[in-house]
Amino acid sequence: MFTNPYNTYQRINKEQMSSRELEASILNKAGAMLKRCQEHWNDTDRDARLDDALKFNQKIWSFFQAELIDPENPLPMELKCSILNLSLFIDKSIYDIMAYPEADKLTPIIDINLNLAAGLFARVDDTDVEKAA
Which residues contact 109 (CB under 8 A, 6 or more apart)? Predict the structure, then answer.
């Protein structure tokens, strides 16, 4: 049976990623999915792509919510509360978009996803520098 080399690369790459890198990668993917929907708003397959992108975003933010309320989560309480508040905003925005789709409504979710991903990637880079020192 033939294995797609790209899929194999992705699987191996994910296995070697830190949790921060994985979270950043997933947030980037979520933002990119929404951005493609926004850029191709008038395409005939918009509804299906939008549904996929919104569901993907719901899943990842639900996962973050579950992780944040875990008593074993080591993040400071203030940071947990801030991220939980962001997740509530994302939830409300997603439901609003599902009910009343408009391309501009995607922008805040895209920005949050991509900015958080950039911050996580920056923290990964800082950690690498600290380890090397």
Answer: 31, 34, 57, 90, 93, 94
Angle of the 107-132 helix axis to the 77-99 helix axis, nearest 10 = 150
Both structure tokens of 83: 């991220």
Report pLDDT for 129: 41
Would you say residue 100 has pLDDT above 90? yes
Packing angle, helices 19-39 and 107-132, rounded to 10? 150
Report which DSSP code applies to 25.
H
**Whether residue 3 has pLDDT greater than 70:** no
Distance, CA of 64 to CA of 86 (rounded, Å): 10
Please state, rounded to an integer, the average pLDDT across all residues of the chain: 85
Rg (CA), the chain: 17
Is the distance from CB of 114 to CB of 25 less than 8 angstroms? no
Segment 69-84 mean pLDDT? 92
